[in-house]
Amino acid sequence: MNSKPTYLSKDGLEKLRAELAEMVTRKRPEVAQRIHDAKEHGDLSENAEYEDAKNEQAFVEGRIQTLEALIKNATIIGENHSTDHVQIGSTVKVRSDDGEESFTIVGSAEAKPGEGRISNESPVGRALLGKKKGEKVVVRVPAGDFTYKVVGIS
């Protein structure tokens, strides 16, 4: 696993911890019981229930490892951040030829572009970091170049 910092809000970290607890205390034992029950049905070579349970076990164990790594490398995004330049945790209002949009810059684990929460690692997020109100930024994306003007930071 990598040791790259995972930028999270306090709420995001709590959600990951809750998911990890759910996986360890409920899902892992459930899958183990399914495997145990499937083994009792005899021949494992043609037992679809056993194969399905083993696949789910692999998924659950992989997700547990991922969650543990995210939590271990978590860096909490400060709620009291500067409003003079864009940083992780900032909500940025930008203007382009298409009109005005708002983005909240978050860590990749909490990104939901459809809700305006973009990753600090995305092309737009990366381009906006460090910018000040009034600055223009050109974002290169596969669809072409977009020009945004930062009109507000909160």
Helix/strand layout:
Blueprint (H helix, E strand, L loop, with lengths): L5 E3 L1 H30 L8 H25 L1 E3 L14 E6 L2 E8 L10 E3 L3 H6 L7 E6 L2 E10 L1
Parallel strand pairs: 1-2, 4-5
Antiparallel strand pairs: 3-4, 3-7, 6-7
Numbering strands along the chain, what is their spatial order in the largest sheet?
A: 5-4-3-7-6
The gross shape turns out to be: elongated
Radius of gyration from CA coordinates: 22 Å
How many individual helices? 3
CATH H level of the largest domain: which superfamily?
Transcription elongation factor, GreA/GreB, N-terminal domain
The helix content, as a percent range, equals 25-40%
Our estimate of the beta-strand percent is 25-35%
Query: Which H/E pattern describes the elements?
Result: EHHEEEEHEE
Number of strands: 7
The profile of the biggest β sheet is: 5 strands, mixed
Summarize the structure.
With 154 residues, the chain is an alpha/beta fold. The protein has helices spanning 10-39, 48-72, 123-128; strands at residues 6-8, 74-76, 91-96, 99-106, 117-119, 136-141, 144-153. Helix content is 40%, strand content 25%.
